[in-house]
Design brief:
Subcellular location (chain A): Cell membrane
Protein name (chain A): ABC transporter permease
CATH class of chain A: Mainly Alpha
Strand order of the largest sheet of chain A: 1-4
Number of strands of chain B: 22
Oligomer: heterodimer
Largest sheet of chain B: 6 strands, mixed
Largest interface: A-B, 41 and 61 residues
Structural class of chain A: mainly alpha
Mean pLDDT of chain A: 86
Structural class of chain B: alpha/beta
Shape of chain B: globular
Distance between the termini of chain A: 9 Å
GO molecular function (chain A): transmembrane transporter activity
Largest sheet of chain A: 2 strands, antiparallel
Strand order of the largest sheet of chain B: 6-7-8-3-9-10
Radius of gyration of chain A: 23 Å
CATH superfamily of chain A: ABC transporter involved in vitamin B12 uptake, BtuC
Main location (chain A): membrane
Strand content of chain A: under 5%
Low-confidence stretches of chain A: 1-19, 329-346
Radius of gyration of chain B: 25 Å
Number of domains of chain B: 3
Pfam family, one (chain A): BPD_transp_2
CATH topology of the largest domain in chain B: Rossmann fold
Strand content of chain B: 15-25%
Shape of chain A: globular
Helix content of chain B: 25-40%
């Protein structure tokens, strides 16, 4: 236990170059996936019929609307913003698509109309937030209420049922045995992943969330980026609204009520920081699946609805707690061990 | 060994994982002296002071106070021995008032056990009066300048009868007048018999304040000297382990045609400003804090809206509405506050460097990642940034390396005009030297460089010409080779032959 004072000390590096174990990094990479695997194992062990292919495909279809919503929200949250209006957008875009279809527009045009209305709602949010510098929470709280009102106004508060809806396959169809909404969801995530990870636009989204001031001085057009992420969130909500309407073969003014909160939960569960600049789209997908599997599994287990809410709430808080733990340079239990090792020396 | 010092640290060793942060170092402090502790970033100064403050445990070594060995294992232990530390990041509660902060943890209570606000205010007034600080104790602490907040911390230390006071780079964020006020309080505490440890990178300041200086390098003790018996050159050599020559030494440059030309530039704070920087020329803007230098840099870069004037780059008009346009015109700017405005602290070094040049590496919006990465690594090699840092968050780098990453962004972009606002603030002397060499190299490669610096020897030493600003205007121009600090201060303060230290910039 003698020191060797004769050798030249290595220059202290600016960062502890080799930490014994980087919990944050490790958790970032595999943590949420482990949670999902554990949940799947647990469910297949205790829930009857959970493992059957048709059940798994049903779960996938059930989560597709929320997952698509959450994909768009990931862009917004990566910039440090929030969009509460996406749930109401689901209703408005669904109503518009159904009315278009009833008016005799071909299915692709009706679908596009629904998505475009969603994008337009997002554009309104984006312009108010980016160029009038209003707080995203307040702006989208306002548009959430306004759009819900718009949905009720257009439909006079009644569902518009159209039993021969031309785009019903978007919600109910299958392609090679896979539900169409699941295929759309996969397509949305592939595109979102590619855009965020591989394009200049994606780097700019992260930059704006990481430090808007620095982003501007680095030549990022912050206003455009901010506006665009709300357009993306709106378009995703529009697509989710079309799928929802197709699934229930009607326009429902109450569609998507409260969905924004589930989507936010999925994004946060997936490890994206509400402060912006940090997070991954793959995490959001895993977060959505976890929430979906949890709901479906609890139903299969005949857990009462009230209890389901209790469990979901706890899961979300746990996810946020783990996110908080991640912020620390070292988890507490490791720190203590290190201090103790230091104290043992003479 | 004439007298037993107030405090003596011997054989202190501290290991972080595989790294020896402190290797058998010593340090002693007498009552009534200011003892400067110097060294490059990573030399171990802050580690030793954290051990003294009880924030981290040492692996080996003794702490002796008044000739008796003492044990410090927690901040509480340190406080009970009369050791107080003013950290770079202040440990205060911004929403609470000055009085509440001063009473924190030891609030006076009435007979009923309720908070005794009247006594708290009276105590606060008395504590502030001890160091002659003119601060209203009823104000929320967060509404005070950093300098005044620091005074409150010192007042707290003084009121706790601290016998050892450690100041860790206390003037890094202070204006000149605040720094002068701090020097006054330090002198007062020294006269009262307190032993002060003063950590600073600023050579001038150390020579003005300290009685002795100790130098650490790479976690080892290099030596201690009396101020009268040691020169700054010797201290620099001790810090870097080799002779530095003249820190600012550069061969004469031969500037070419005008690259950046500014005429009548103004907004509601500054101007009208005329200036020109030639290709291959380094022009420094000097002036007091608040004289408008940063504002001029930001106006040229399009970071703030201008209300009038023209900017020409290589003879072509540049009227950017935002930095995006300025960058396209060939301007790059490293802002004053690299953490708040320059860098994405949580993002990788690679992303930080590449962000402004992505358009060079995209096909239809998709980044060609291999190409971008090899371009980034070339710049990192040029700046002697270790390549293992590529994927590390910038936050994990030292100040000097963070600044190199900020510079690398514009090297990669190959900007023709560079505006560098306080390029060496908070940077250790080795990295400073490298940044000066880089500025010289860039100028020789034909870039036009405008440097804003509050470090006068630096501003004079690295530039070809000096522009002195006062109250939003350029009031004087000097040829750097023949300029003195006095020349600059006279014009910066507008004092004629008057008081060179007064803070005359009230715009």
């Amino acid at each position: 236990m003698t020191h060797t004072p004769d050798h030249p000390a290595p220059r202290a590096p600016e960062a502890p170059a080799r930490q014994p174990f980087d919990f944050a990094k490790w958790w970032d990479r595999v943590g949420i996936l482990l949670v999902l695997v554990a949940l799947l194992l647990l469910m297949s062990a205790i829930a009857p019929n959970f493992n059957r292919v048709d059940n798994l495909l049903n779960i996938a279809r059930a989560i597709s609307v929320n997952a698509i919503l959450a994909a768009g929200l990931t862009f917004v949250i990566l910039t440090g913003g929030i969009d509460l209006s996406v749930g109401s957008t689901i209703a408005v875009s669904g109503v518009v698509a159904v009315i278009a279809a009833i008016a005799g527009w071909p299915a692709p045009i009706a679908i596009l109309a629904g998505v475009a209305v969603g994008a337009a709602c997002g554009l309104a949010n984006g312009v108010l937030i980016a160029y009038l510098a209003l707080a995203p929470f307040i702006v989208t709280l306002g548009t959430m209420t306004f759009l819900r009102g718009l949905g009720y106004t257009i439909t006079a508060g009644q569902p518009i049922v159209s039993s021969d809806l031309n785009f019903r396959d978007v919600g109910n169809g299958y392609l090679s045995g896979v539900p169409v909404p699941v295929l759309i969801m996969i397509a949305v995530y592939v595109v979102a992943w590619f855009v965020l990870e591989r394009t200049r636009y994606g780097r700019h989204v992260y930059a704006v969330g990481g430090n808007p001031q620095a982003a501007r001085l680095a030549g990022v057009r912050v206003g455009r980026i901010l506006t665009s992420v709300y357009v993306i969130a709106g378009a995703c909500a529009g697509l989710a609204g079309v799928i929802f309407a197709a699934r229930v073969i009607s326009a429902q003014p109450t569609a998507g009520t409260g969905y924004e909160l589930d989507a936010i939960a999925a994004v946060v569960l997936g490890g994206t920081s509400l402060a912006g600049g940090r997070g991954r789209i793959v995490g959001t997908l895993i977060g959505s699946v976890i929430l979906g599997v949890l709901s479906t599994g609890l139903i299969l287990l005949n857990v009462p609805f009230f209890t389901q809410l209790l469990i979901k709430g706890v899961v979300i808080i746990l996810a946020v707690a783990i996110d908080g733990l991640k912020q620390r340079p070292l988890p507490l239990f490791l720190k203590r061990r290190q201090a103790a090792a230091g104290a043992e020396r003479p | 060994m004439a007298e037993e010092p107030l405090l003596r640290l011997e054989g202190v060793t501290k290991r972080f994982g595989a790294t020896l942060a402190l290797d058998d170092v010593r340090f002693d402090l007498r009552a009534g002296e200011v003892h400067a502790l110097m060294g490059e970033n990573g030399a171990g100064k802050s580690t030793l002071m954290k051990i003294l403050a009880g924030n981290i445990d040492r692996d080996a070594g003794r702490i002796v106070m008044d000739g008796r060995e003492i044990e410090i294992r927690s901040p509480r232990d340190a406080r009970s021995h009369g050791i107080a530390i003013i950290h770079q990041e202040l440990n205060t509660v911004p929403f609470m008032t000055v009085a509440e902060n001063l009473a924190l943890g030891n609030e006076p209570r009435t007979a009923l056990g309720l908070l005794d606000r009247r006594r708290m205010m009276a105590d606060a007034r008395e504590k502030l009066a001890r160091i002659h600080a003119d601060i209203d104790p009823a104000r929320p602490l967060g509404s005070l300048s950093v300098g005044l907040q620091q005074m409150v911390e010192i007042a707290r230390a003084a009121s706790e009868e601290a016998r050892v006071l450690v100041l860790d780079e206390p003037t890094a964020a202070l204006s000149r007048s605040e720094a002068l006020e701090l020097y006054r309080i330090i002198s007062q505490m020294r006269a009262a018999g307190v032993g002060l440890v003063y950590i600073s990178h600023r050579m001038e300041e150390v020579w003005q304040l300290a009685d002795r200086v100790t130098v650490f390098r790479d976690g080892t003790y290099v030596g201690t000297g009396r101020m009268g018996a040691i020169t700054p050159t010797v201290v620099v050599r001790m810090m870097v382990g080799r002779a530095m020559g003249d820190l600012y030494d550069h061969a004469p440059r031969a500037p070419g045609d005008v690259m950046l030309e500014v005429r009548g530039l103004c907004d509601d704070r500054v101007g009208p400003v005329d200036l020109a920087v030639r290709a291959g020329e380094v022009v420094a803007m000097a002036g007091l804090i608040g004289s408008g230098r940063t504002e001029v840099g930001r106006l040229i870069f399009g970071a703030d809206p201008r209300s009038g004037g023209t900017v020409r780059i290589a003879g072509r008009d540049s009227a950017p509405a935002d930095p995006f346009g300025a960058i396209a015109d060939g301007i790059g700017m490293v802002p004053e506050d690299r953490k708040d405005q320059g860098l994405f602290l949580e993002h990788s070094v690679e992303d930080n460097i590449a962000i402004s040049s992505l358009d060079r590496f995209v096909t239809a919006g998709v980044v060609r990642r291999g190409e971008a990465r090899s371009a980034v690594t070339r710049q990192m090699e040029r700046l002697r940034l270790r390549l293992s840092a590529l994927a590390l968050p910038v936050r994990a780098l030292s100040g000097g390396n963070q600044q190199k990453a900020a510079l690398a962004r514009w090297l990669l972009r190959d900007s023709r005009v560079l505006i560098l606002d306080e390029p060496t603030r908070g940077v250790d002397i080795g990295a400073k030297r490298e940044i000066y060499e880089l500025i010289d190299e860039l100028a020789r490669a034909g870039k036009a460089i405008l440097v804003i610096s509050s470090d006068l020897p630096e501003a004079i030493g690295i530039s070809d010409r000096l522009l002195v600003m006062r109250a939003g205007r350029i009031v004087h121009e000097l040829v750097s080779a023949s300029a003195t600090e006095e020349d600059v201060m006279v014009h910066a303060t507008g004092a004629g032959a008057g008081t060179p230290h007064s803070d005359g910039a009230t715009a």
